[in-house]
Design brief:
Layout (H helix, E strand, L loop, with lengths): L4 E3 L7 E3 L4 H6 L14 H11 L9 H22 L6 H11 L22 H15 L8 E3 L8 E3 L12 H17 L2
Antiparallel strand pairs: 1-2, 3-4
Helix pairs in contact: 3-4, 3-5, 4-5
């Protein structure tokens, strides 16, 4: 599964952030780390989902948007609790489990001649797929790899998917580079 998205913060250059998790990517559409809200309408959510799940119908209702925003908030709260090594709050776990229990998008092997599985999925199925990613992300196998960026001025949280499990920065191109520049300047002024 491909993860990551472009961040376009005010007064900063656009940069790529790979959170390591589809669920965390969804949380970063506005509910996590002070990011600007990007899902203002059902059409915004439809576009975001369609970019990640090309076989879904991007048409959503206001109710589906409202449900998705509540789901997104639950993911954000779990991410922050996990990054702080706190107990995960039960009400948010219940929200994740509720969405994960819905039918998700079935996998389809391309190249067949029959039309089974060729219909467009519903956005709720895409949200269920995100919830199942959240179950894996916050589960016992991965939870210990949810980290906060080591930069003091960065509130971002990510799933460390590196082989060695020692990722320190939200992005080497952003916070990692800034830290290296500060360290170099500190050594140069001695």
């Amino acid at each position: 599964m491909i993860t990551g998205q472009w961040f376009d913060p005010p007064n900063e250059s656009r940069w790529w952030f790979d959170s390591g998790s589809l669920a965390l990517d969804f949380a970063y559409t506005g509910a996590l780390a002070g990011n600007p809200e990007t899902l203002h309408s059902p059409a915004d959510l439809g576009r975001w989902l369609a970019a990640r799940f090309p076989r879904i119908d991007p048409e959503l209702s206001e109710r589906e948007l409202s449900d998705a925003l509540g789901f997104r908030a639950a993911i954000a709260q779990l991410a922050l609790a996990a990054a702080d090594d706190e107990e995960l709050p039960a009400p948010q776990i219940d929200v994740i489990n509720l969405f994960a229990a819905l039918a998700d998008l079935p996998p389809v092997l391309p190249g067949g001649t029959r039309q089974a599985g060729a219909s467009r999925g519903r956005p709720t199925q895409a949200l269920s797929s995100i919830a199942r990613d959240a179950v894996t992300t916050f589960g016992p196998e991965s939870r210990s790899r949810i980290r906060a960026c080591a930069a003091e001025d960065c509130p971002l949280v990510y799933l460390d998917t590196s082989r060695s499990g020692n990722r320190r920065w939200c992005s080497m191109q952003r916070c990692g580079n800034r830290a290296k520049v500060r360290a170099h300047r500190a050594r140069s002024t001695r």
